[in-house]
Amino acid sequence: MSEQPSGDEKKVVAIRVSPTFKKQLDSVVELTSKTLNEAGVEALEDWVAKILSDPAIRAKAMQNLQAEEQALQERRQALQAMLGDGSDAEVDEKPSAPAERSGGRRGKASGE
Asked: Cα 50 to the chain's mean position, in Å?
């Protein structure tokens, strides 16, 4: 089985099954020391391991990662183009400048 999230962090995944299958699941789970949730998690972990053992799926996953990396690089370049050369000093100074300007505008608007 794969690693569980650290601590008590869990997410809900709900599946829909027929009433007949649900009764079957409940009957089988009663024969074990597991809960229906534990059995479901184990089944999903086994399914994921099986799917990821397929070379075609692994290749597709790598293609997806490369596409995400390319999109991230394009976003990074677009932001750097908007910010200038991307030096740390320039990035640190820019957030304070708009705050000062907006404060001045607020004073003007309330004085009118």
From this structure: 22
